[in-house]
Specification:
alpha/beta, four-stranded antiparallel beta sheet, 23 helices
Length: 765
């Protein structure tokens, strides 16, 4: 029963380790919004604490020996219990939330976020992070027959991680409130502490710990082919560097593919679960006697998949979403299997087990730090190129014995790649000159045009690169050449005039291919545009057009009734066009880069030509900032706070609606922008209106632009307006504003919300 006890303890510890991560992420959502930077920083924090736990396990067992270390570890378990009691006494919750640690107006609120995470879950997470290397090392000294190769327990640990990760969005989140989730986590840690106590007892009571002289251990290990021979193992610097690199590359790719899929393909939260689940699954598979034949097969297929991923990036392919996402995630999974499989094949004997896990953890932290902290600063003006860089490195990785050539570069390799680069750049320049993209991204011809252009630009160069797939060095450099050449293609969004990157993502100012529009692009979503060929005060375009719902809101409400306006989400500042003398306007914007761009008249002039007596921008999360303004202040609130195409959940909860109407005057109106590709938001907002006490009146307009309007810069949009009574809505009770039936269903709350409830069916997309 000893393996069962240890496997169960590892399973529970790992499940808790990965359950608390999305739990903390959800606690952070109302404080920092839903940007990918929040999750990436959380990932790096958790990886860094994991590294600390592995270092503790390695150093403490090396210095103290297993038995004395087990006694010391019991003291650490007491610290966890004390930390929980202190948190409950101070905040009434086992996971303390202290918003004051998070700054409101920084491009990189990373240090405040790390402090928040440390206070909230630092102590229990550190102890949970020690579980895998520590208990495997303990088990290796028990004298049990299976103790000769304790790495099978690593599969149990990762299986627990996978259960905790998938169990949260599928089982826990839909059924438990945030408060209940926090108490469940604390109870789970209590069970874990009890299990570790039992495991420690088996070590402490066995005074010799089953440890035999080193020569006897080696003699026992040698005849067993499933065990790891200690006699031939050398822990060299080169081997350690290889471990670190093989662990760092999948970690970097994990954050890269997560950011790309959840921002550039479908900006929907929860998609990060899929890559992380596959990342953990790869560990489970390769450390559970991964067959060499399958390992070699994956090593042959994955480099070919990488070429198609590169092509999808060059073409800006996002549809069909399922196929494109599967391509990116499938290639990522293949790289994880190759790298982690190589690590499993090179795992050391048990006496080096804790060192092995420490170096693996260091590699994971290195990859995460590169994506979350280094890349945003180093590539500040280049966009998110860490994902392409990781793909290029992955193209050079092969299982040992599968390379048809050595990895060292030769002059012929460099010359070949330079020739490929020159040819591809020439094709890109010629094709882009004679074949421009349609002005509107939603033009029906855009997809076919993009595919044709891409085929002419990259078809032959890709075929040339594919012919080198069995030669890793040349193949990786060929993919790099394709990426470099792709930088010369203005593509769908036109010429980039300005690009900025920070914690909240990448924002671009671009000129449309026909030169008529200046656009603000965040992720893959256009957040506003201004005509470049019209002098004077700019007119609002896209979702804010005068002939659309926003124009109707201002036309329907008497000007004398609107004295103060609050706008959640700045964008280009286009709605400031509707400001009148005598009014006061306040924009709430979380991203400092967006504020800098909107205020620069070289790009957009909506703010600089605003006619209101007061037009200010407040930096920080809108809900946090709005709690600080007086009640009954605004006559109109416009809710348009998007991160790429995803509206942060915490802006559409019962508590959020209550806050908005606290800040509205008795006759005030709330206008909500609910356009979304993947989420069906109108029924949710209708339920929120009906749920309010007293119930609110609401109207809905799905505005579809015609051809002439599209040429004038207007785009399709969906808006809803909410007010305390029908009379407050004025003319917005008539066509094209329609009533929407209240369909029974859940209402989002701050402590209870699930995006799966509002996911559009396939035929609605």
């Amino acid at each position: 029963m000893l393996p069962t006890l240890y496997a169960l303890t590892l399973f529970v510890g790992a499940a808790l380790l990965f359950l608390v991560q999305p739990l903390v992420g959800k606690l952070l959502l109302p404080l920092l919004g839903g940007s990918p930077g929040v999750w990436n920083t959380c990932m790096v924090f958790f990886q860094a604490v994991l590294l600390g736990g592995y270092l503790y396990a390695h150093r403490s067992t090396g210095k103290l020996g297993v038995r004395r270390q087990a006694i010391v570890h019991l003291g650490l378990l007491v610290v966890v219990v004390v930390a929980f009691k202190a948190a409950i006494a101070a905040t009434g919750s086992p996971v303390p939330v202290i918003p004051s640690l998070l700054p409101d107006d920084q491009d990189y609120p990373i240090f405040g976020l790390v402090a928040f995470l440390g206070v909230a879950v630092g102590v229990p997470f550190f102890v949970l992070s020690t579980t895998s290397p520590l208990l495997q090392r303990w088990f290796a000294t028990t004298g049990h027959p299976s103790a000769r190769d304790p790495y099978f327990l690593y599969a149990a640990s990762n299986a627990g991680s996978l259960l905790g990760l998938l169990g949260y969005p599928l089982i826990i989140e839909p059924r438990l409130t945030l408060a209940e989730q926090q108490w469940m986590f604390a109870a789970g840690v209590g069970v874990y502490v009890g299990l570790v106590l039992v495991c420690a007892t088996t070590i402490i009571r066995k005074k010799d710990n089953g440890e035999k002289p080193k020569d006897e251990q080696e003699a026992e290990l040698t005849p067993d082919s499933s065990a790891i021979p200690a006699t031939s193992f050398v822990l060299s610097t080169r081997r350690i560097a290889r471990w670190v690199f093989l662990a760092a590359l999948p970690s970097s790719l994990l954050l890269g593919v997560t950011t790309h899929v959840s921002t550039d393909l479908a900006p929907v939260p929860l998609l990060w679960v899929v890559p992380l689940a596959l990342y953990l699954t790869s560990f489970i598979l390769v450390f559970a006697r991964w067959p060499d034949g399958i390992h070699r097969l994956v090593g042959r297929v994955t480099p070919e998949l990488l070429l198609f991923v590169v092509l999808s990036l060059l073409l800006g392919a996002a549809e069909p979403f399922g196929l494109v996402a599967a391509l990116h995630i499938g290639a990522f999974f293949g790289v994880c299997l190759i790298c982690h499989g190589e690590l499993a094949r090179d795992r050391p004997p048990p006496e080096h087990l804790t060192a092995f896990y420490f170096w693996l953890s260091l590699g994971g932290v290195t990859g995460g730090l590169f994506n979350a902290l280094v890349a945003p600063i180093v590539f500040h003006r280049l966009g998110m190129i860490e994902y392409p860089l990781a793909l290029i490195l992955a193209a050079a990785i092969r299982p040992k014995g599968e390379e048809s050539e050595k990895s060292t570069l030769r002059l012929a390799d460099v010359m070949l790649v330079l020739a490929l680069l020159a040819i591809t750049v020439g094709l890109v320049l010629v094709v882009s000159h004679f074949m421009s993209m349609p002005v509107e991204p939603d033009n029906p011809d855009a997809l076919s045009t993009r595919l044709l252009r891409g085929g002419l630009m990259f078809g032959l160069p890709s075929a040339a690169a594919f012919s080198l797939v069995r030669r890793p060095a040349r193949y990786a450099l060929s993919l790099a050449a394709l990426f470099v050449a792709g930088m010369f293609d203005p593509g769908l969004i036109g010429d980039t005039l300005h690009m900025e990157r920070n914690f909240f993502g990448v924002v671009r100012v671009t000129r449309s291919p026909d030169g008529k529009f200046i656009r603000l692009i965040h992720g893959t979503t256009m957040h506003g545009q201004q005509r470049a060929d019209e002098p004077g005060r700019p007119r609002p375009m896209t979702y804010y057009h005068e002939k659309g719902p926003v124009g109707s809101v201002f036309a329907s409400l008497p000007a004398e009734r609107i004295k103060r306006v609050g706008v959640v989400g700045l964008g280009t500042g286009a709605v400031a066009y509707y400001a009148k003398p005598g009014q006061e306007w306040t924009f709430f914007e979380i991203d400092p880069a967006v504020v800098r761009i909107a205020r620069d008249p070289a790009y957009f002039r909506f703010l600089s030509t605003c006619k209101a007596d007061k037009c200010e921008v407040v930096l920080g999360d809108a809900r946090r900032q709005m709690t600080r303004v007086p009640d009954n202040l605004f006559d109109l609130i416009i809710l348009d706070g998007f991160c790429s195409d995803a509206i942060p959940v915490h802006l559409l909860t019962r508590e959020a609606i209550r806050l908005y109407f606290q800040k509205l005057t008795p006759n005030g109106v709330l206008a909500v922008h609910i356009s979304n590709v993947h989420l069906d938001l109108p029924p949710l907002v209708a339920r929120l209106a009906a749920d309010h006490d007293p119930p609110l009146s609401s109207r809905y307009w799905h505005d579809t632009a015609n051809d002439s309007e599209r040429m004038d810069g207007k785009t399709d949009s969906q808006w809803m307006v909410l007010a305390r009574s029908e009379t407050d809505l004025g003319k917005m009770t008539k066509n094209p504003w329609d009533k929407i039936a209240v369909v029974p269903g859940p209402v989002w709350r701050d402590d209870f919300a699930n995006l799966l409830w509002v996911w559009k069916k396939q035929d609605e997309n």
